[in-house]
Amino acid sequence: MSIHDKSLLVSLNLTTIRSSRADKEITADVLRDHRASEDAGRWVSRLWPKEAMEGIRSLDGQIRALHYAKTLPWMDKGERIIASRTFTAYTDQMRGFRHQRETLVQWFLDHYFDWIDRARVMRGTSFREEEYPTFASARKRFRFELAAAPVPHADDFRVTLASEDMDEVRASIQARVDEAEANAIRDLYRRLADPVARLVERLADPEGRFTDATLNALREIVATIPDINVMDDPEVEKLRQLIGSQLCTLNAEGVTNSRSDRSRALTRANNILASMAPWMEAIPEEEEETVEAAA
Fold it and tell me: What is the pLDDT of residues 150-190, one digit of tens each?
C-alpha cells in the first residue's frame, strides 16, 4: 500500500476574538517618562478580564497539542498528515473538544456586555469602546474548523497538456510528495531523539536524582509512535522497540543509587542517540532552529 492509501491530510483552524492590543499612547508615555529609546519595549493592553478568555485559551492549547501529537508535518500550507487507521479516533476526540469549546464560547457570549463593563473599569482611561466588536461580530470570530483531504497524487489533475508537459507536472507533484514524506519521517526521528537526548543529559549528571517522571516523556512518545508512523517505516519501528526495551524499562531507583547502573544506562542511551545521527543530520540547520524556538 502507498502513502495515499495509508493516510489523509488534516488541517485545523482555531480563531478567537482579539484579547490584547499594543497601546501606542501608553508606550509613548512610558518611554518618555523613563527616557528610553523607541526599541526599549511597548505596552500591550489586555482587552478582557483574565477569566473571560482563560478557559477558551487553555482548551485551544489542548486541542492544538492533540493535533500536533497525532499528526506529522506536510508541506507548507498548514496541512498535516495522519494515518488512516487513527483518523476515526482523532475525529472523535476533536468532536468532543468542539463541544467543550462551544460551551465555553457560549458562556463568554452570555456575559459579553458584563465583560465589557468590567474591562472599562479594569483599563481605566485607556479603555476605548471602538476596540470592542459588536455582539454579532464577536460571535462570528470564534471558529473551530477541521478539514480532511486525500494525499495528493501525481495523477490528481484534469487538464489537457502536451505529453512532455504532463510528464513534467507529474514529476513535480511526485517530487513534492516525496519531499513531504521524507520530512514526516524525519519528524518521527526528531520526536524520538529529543527525549533520548534529555535522558542522556540527566544520566550524565552523577549527582542528579533520577525518577520515573524522568522517563515519562520517553515512554509516552514510544507508546504513540505506532499511531503516527504513517508510512509504517520499519526502521522507525525497530528504533522504537530498541528504546522501549533498553531505556523505558530502566529502574529509576537503581539508576539513582548505583553508579554502575547509571553508567550502563548512559552508554545505552548514547549509543541509541548516535545511531539516529544520520537521520538528524539530514534536517536543515534552520529547520532545527525553528523547531527549537517553537518548542
Answer: 887 666 554 444 566 556 656 766 677 778 888 888 899 99
Q: Which of 22, 71, 20 minimizes the C-alpha distance to 42? A: 22
3-state secondary structure of 37: coil
How many Cβ atoms sit within 10 Å of the Cβ of residue 212? 11
> Amino acid identity, residue 65?
A
Strand partners, 14: 144
Residue 5: enclosing H or E segment and its boundaries? helix 3-6
Alpha-carbon distance 211 to 252, whole Å? 5
Q: Is the pTM of this model over 0.85?
A: no
Distance between CA atoms of residues 272 and 187, nearest Å:
17
What residue type is assigned to position 24 of the chain?
A: K
Q: Which of 188, 174, 197, 168 is nearest to 272 (CA)?
A: 197
CA distances from 104 to 64, 107, 128 (A): 17, 5, 25
- Euclidean distance between CA atoms 260 and 276, whole angstroms: 25
Query: How far is Cα 27 from Cα 44, in angstroms, rounded to an integer?
Result: 8
What is the C-alpha separation between 77 and 9, in angstroms, rounded?
11
